[in-house]
């Protein structure tokens, strides 16, 4: 049995990959909103569509890329940007907030 304290936390292997790809898309597509709320919505949507891949830190796996393949990351992030652009939750007037809430994202 391992000593307590050696296991510090559990992380999602796709988290940093999705964050990286969000920045990549924003640098290539200035039409997408880059506000904090839209970034978080894209991050949550993309992570929810990817297969779960959690791991314990410290990890015994050090020599391979973890998480989903980059092509799946790209598809998930681009689809999430499209959904968020249609139904943004950032500082909208009340009526538009209510409309956006109906988008279910
Ligand atoms: Zn925004």
Write the layout of secondary structure elements.
Blueprint: E1 9-12, H1 15-28, H2 36-49, E2 54-57, H3 70-86, H4 94-101
The structure holds zinc ion.
Average pLDDT rating: 86
Q: Estimate nothing, just give the exact number of structural domains.
A: 1
Order of helices and strands: EHHEHH
Classify the beta-strand content into a percent band.
5-15%
Bound molecules: zinc ion
Structure class: mainly alpha
According to DSSP, the number of beta strands is 2
Shape: elongated
The N- and C-terminal alpha carbons lie at a distance of 42 Å
Largest sheet: 2 strands, antiparallel
Question: How much helix, percentage-wise, in residues?
Answer: 40-55%
Low-confidence stretches: none
Oligomer class: single chain
Return Rg in Å. Answer: 17 Å
Report the total helices.
Answer: 4
Largest sheet, order of strands side by side?
Answer: 1-2
Describe the structure.
With 105 residues, the chain is mostly helical. It has one domain. It has 4 helices and 2 strands. The chain has a two-stranded antiparallel ribbon. Helix 2 crosses helix 3. The chain is elongated, with a radius of gyration of 17 Å. The termini are far apart. The site of zinc ion has 6 residues, from helix 2.
In short:
The protein is mostly helical and 105 residues long. It has 4 helices and 2 strands. It has one domain (9-101).
List keywords for this structure.
single chain, 105 residues, mainly alpha, two-stranded antiparallel ribbon, binds zinc ion
